[in-house]
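Q: Sequence in, structure out?
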Amino acid sequence: MEETTTRSNFIWDAIDQDLAEGRYTQVHTRFPPEPNGYMHIGHCKALIMDFLTAEKYGGLSNLRFDDTNPAKEDTEYVEAIKRDINWLGFTWTGGLYYASDYYDKCYEIAEDWIKRGLAYVDELDKEQMREYRGTLTKPGKNSPWRDRPAEESLDLFRRMKNGEFAEGTYTLRAKIDMASPNIVMRDPAMYRILYKEHWRTGSKWCIYPMYDFAHPIGDALEGISHSLCSLEYEIHRPLYDWVVEKSAHMLPAKPRQIEFARLNMTRTVMSKRKLRALVEGGYVRGWDDPRMPTLSALRRRGYTANAIRDFISRIGLSKADSVVDTAVLEACVRQDLDANAARVSAVLRPIKVVLTNWPEGEKRELVVENHPKNPDMGTHTVTLSREIYIDAEDFMEVPANKFQRMYPGFEVRLKGACIVKCEGCTKDEDGNVVEIQCTVDFDSFAGCEGSSRKIKGKVLHWVNAKDAVPFEARLYEPLLPAEGEAVEEEVEETAADEMETVEDGAEETDALTRKDYDFLKQISPNTLTILRGYAEPAIRDCEVGTSFQFVRVGYFCKDPDSTSELPVFNRTVELNGLKL
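A: Exactly. Output:
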């Protein structure tokens, strides 16, 4: 990843200019996830940019959890996010913080604003607030409560804090400009009443600050120099700057917000609300189900931190939204595993082959390389005896045109072993092939006189039946179909939820909309295929998380569901695909 800290981008160009002009003396970034779900691949662009920028400039980077909505948050998500950040190779050198650390300061600033005529307590209901807010083409109009005396607003705000009013009855709003062409600046809500116990502060608070209010205050209190965020927050930047400016006498720093385009990928769900619906609806087995785009799921599936960091480096930064083909991420992990994963033989759809001229009870040990391109990875020994397994797809009783694998009368080479000739097969009463008979050319073993003999047949992978290890292979497909796919953007939902709260001061909700239910109907029905196969003994005792290339099959990773009797392997990616 060294090249990623030397390759320029528009954000680093801006930071270079800030440092050269003396606007900041140290780069200090922060990553501010909301602990209301597991992080997914879409978050990696911001995550890596925040931490990598601090590394590049020898600065600091904070991890600050945006826990301003106790209705959604959980310690499970906090710990999962920490694990994912560490797995990607980063640490929060500037410290670990929570938005709730600043609740007292936010309240103090809110009271100061009320006293200075910068905020007022409003009592418009949900529908009224929406009506008064206006539209993108029509300015809003002032609330009847906008000119409420500061003393009255201060008294109501304190009574809101003391729990004297029901949810939705009062909202603290910033007094900015209801005719602003930027709809975010039309007296946005700063506080709402919410009777939810907070996982950190307990029942101390029944009013909670909005993100647009708490976030810039947290940045300034922590001495953040550059607040890097995705493009949907560009429209919020004037409010970000307004909050910092109006609180400057109570804050130690003035951060700069810079936006970049978020990450969108084909056939990938980028909404935590929808991902939660998949989990709670039983469409997947949990947040770390390998079909999910969460980092926990990708790690379980066998994706590597290096591959994900390489992927983010390759797609780069821009100010324009775009959609990245999922095949690019697959190519990155394929390239990483090609260089680092040991090779073993495994058959997913086994069919028995009997070597009819092989002496009963005899076995031969063969030395095979662990990696054909890296001799330093060493070798291991496999055994060949009278009965072996090959993949059923490598046999046809009546060969198709140009089929060069096993069929009666045709010779193939067993990888690392010898040439065999198919003599025939045995079928069950339903006509299914249950056994194949072959003869061995003993002179074709390495070191023998005929070892260099050329044949037309392919080299087939195989496993020895006598010591083969049974295992479960799990093959995954994307949750969304390729046809008529729609990129699900969390940003749109986040902005919609936040704007609704600005309108009516109500609690954000996890309730699914009709659009969400339509999304659930789009989920592909066959996203998981489970097969029982056989593999070399090398897979039996390896640690969970170990990746192999199953020769001619794909890259696989050992799953936590594995037992001593039945190892379980997830297919990370197929061998063939986009080349980088």
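Residues 326-340 form the longest helix (15 residues).
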